[in-house]
From TrEMBL:
GO terms for biological process: peptide transport. PANTHER family: PERIPLASMIC BINDING COMPONENT OF ABC TRANSPORTER, PERIPLASMIC OLIGOPEPTIDE-BINDING PROTEIN-RELATED. The lineage of its organism: Bacteria, Pseudomonadati, Pseudomonadota, Alphaproteobacteria, Acetobacterales. This is ABC transporter dipeptide binding protein. It is found in: Periplasm.
């Protein structure tokens, strides 16, 4: 197709691993996690992105852009260790002294707050702040209230009547700092869910509505001091922060973070190359990747991502009510083209099932494309099968239907949208593309009241588990009609697949759990509520003056771990 030829002509595909900078071996912090006394302490870290990511409310925002930022601003009871590589996949105590003690039946979790932790407004963290914060998850309608915290005793009543939520399953004693969380049913991943940013602990008097552009007091090394979603954000040091855990929340090197919005991806690359900014958020344009590898090797880092692009097809909106149409899209899409549109084989891999490589359950077979079928799947995707796709469309009787494809207005995704539009047109549909602001596209496509037929989506792991891609995106309870927080935008709900996912999440044997996740993955892909496209790697570009590049699997470049002098 013409879009493929145009992109392929502008992309350098001769990258090698040696073209990318290695992670520095030096440690970021001393054993205490402090940066005081370091010659690298001070200065302003300058960040840029093409747009903001919406609300500053850490219990509502579900965008990786701000979750990355929030990792050095807010804290949870437990968190993932601030460390490079696999070491960063380990959960450690954060605001509590030790990991929770769990009863033999898995229903009672007890822990104790660290003493003398202060919020950025000078108030002391208390047990009642914890109790109120968990209630607030339900009162503000956090996107993960049901999926992550629905097992807490009393959660059902809070979900039904959030305004009067008391959540009796969370108790705290201000005198001793003791915290008790009681569950109504076991949850094999509850520890991981306690580490997620939506479980951020805020002062008890934090308003029980979306904070919008108003920052909440923080416990991390930085606080947000100003925010204009149309222009930028400023952070400075939390004057009341002290390192209470070097693994959970180390000190920051820079004194301030200046985050500006409004530059295109092309302009961002040029600005970072010139040292105007120290880091850029957005995907690097395909036509600049060869330049980065050849001329800015020491400033360019390529890292693994537990993340993917996929097409979400709404099973309640025609023509995607037909399984034949959904299967045809899976057969027809050329995942190799998608890797080129993403930047080439060095930073994207074709993906034919819904769990990224490296996670349990990712070894499900491929049912679609050349030489694969529901009856005889392949181990890996081998290429598109347009002939079979057109046959499925003919059998469906849906040829000629009008389709609107929703995509983010980011340049890279607009390019992907053009290809997908052309593909759907070649299958006999009438198609247009509707770009939506990056800050709004997730909530817009999740709300069934908007009658989205198909959308280009990207999804990243909240923690290292297949549940983030299977249960989150296709679990029955995650389809909430007419809600901006309905993560299951396809509306898929299948009793067999749900049973497999539930059993996998409760299974303590890693091998057995992985097998159950793979079975659930296969069951979902047979029904084809989505078309997985590519698994992404992250290309990070930093300024020449930025030192100690520090990357973690979940929150990517750690802003508190790098220095600029």
């Amino acid at each position: 197709m013409s879009v493929l030829r145009a992109v392929a002509a502008g992309v350098l595909l001769s990258w090698t691993a040696g073209a990318w900078a290695a992670d520095p071996a030096s440690a970021a912090y001393d054993a205490t996690g402090e940066t005081r006394g370091s010659p690298h302490r001070g200065g302003t870290l300058r960040l840029t992105a093409d747009g903001s990511a919406g609300t500053l409310d850490p219990q509502i925002n579900y965008n990786t852009q701000y979750m990355q930022l929030f990792s050095c601003v807010y804290d949870q009871l437990v968190t993932y260790r601030k460390a490079r590589g696999r070491d960063g996949d380990t959960i450690v105590p954060d605001l509590v002294e030790a990991l929770p003690t769990v009863s033999p039946d898995g229903l009672t979790w007890t822990m104790r707050l660290r003493p003398n932790v202060l919020f950025s407004d000078g108030r002391t963290l208390r047990a009642q702040d914890v109790v109120a914060s968990f209630r607030r998850i339900f009162k503000v309608g956090s996107p993960t209230a049901k999926t992550y915290y629905g097992a807490i005793a009393g959660a059902d009543a809070c979900l039904d009547h959030p305004g009067t939520c008391t959540l009796p399953g969370v108790e705290g004693d201000d005198a001793t700092g003791a915290i008790t969380i009681r569950l109504s049913r076991p949850d094999g991943e509850f520890l991981q869910k306690l580490s997620f940013p939506h479980a951020t602990i805020l002062p008890a008097d934090t308003p029980t509505h979306d904070l919008g552009n108003t920052p909440a007091p923080t416990t991390g090394p930085y606080r947000i001091v100003s925010y204009d979603p149309n222009a930028g954000m400023m952070l400075d040091r939390n004057p009341h922060f002290h390192v209470f855990s070097a693994h959970a929340q180390p000190d920051g090197f820079v004194d301030a973070i200046d985050y500006r919005f409004g530059l295109s991806d092309e302009a961002q690359v040029s600005a970072v190359e010139r040292g105007v900014f120290d880091w850029m958020l957005d995907p690097k344009p395909a036509d600049r990747l060869g330049e980065l590898g050849a001329e800015h090797t020491a400033q360019t880092h390529i890292e693994r991502l537990f993340g993917m692009y996929y097409l979400s097809m709404n099973m309640h909106e025609k023509p995607f009510t037909s399984a034949l149409v959904r299967q045809a899209v899976n057969d027809a899409v050329d995942r190799h083209v998608m890797t080129i549109l993403a930047g080439g084989g060095a930073i994207a891999d074709p993906l034919c099932q819904m769990v990224p490589a490296g996670l349990p359950g990712s070894d499900a077979p491929c049912f679609y494309g050349r030489d694969a079928s529901l009856e005889h799947p392949r181990a890996a995707w081998a290429g598109p099968d347009m002939a079979r796709a057109r046959g499925l469309i003919a059998r469906s009787g849906e040829a000629g239907a009008h389709i609107t494809l929703v995509v983010s207005n980011r340049a890279s995704e607009l390019n992907m949208g053009v290809y997908i539009r052309n593909l759907l047109q070649s299958l006999g549909f009438v198609v247009d593309v509707r770009p939506v602001s990056e800050a709004l596209v997730l909530s817009y496509t999740q709300n069934s009241g908007n009658h989205i037929q198909i959308s280009l989506a990207r999804w990243f792991a909240d923690y290292p588990s297949a549940s983030n891609f299977l249960d989150d995106l296709f679990g029955c309870e995650n389809f909430v009609p007419n809600s901006d927080a309905s993560v299951n935008s396809s509306g898929f709900c299948d009793a067999h697949a749900q049973d497999l996912m539930t059993r996998a999440s409760l299974e303590h044997d890693p091998a057995r759990s992985a097998a159950l996740w793979a079975d659930a993955n296969a069951a979902i892909m047979r029904a084809a509520p989505a078309a997985p496209l590519i698994q992404m790697h992250l290309v990070d570009l930093v300024s020449a003056r930025l030192g100690n590049y520090f990357y973690t699997d979940l929150y990517h470049m750690l802003f508190s771990g790098v220095w600029v002098q």
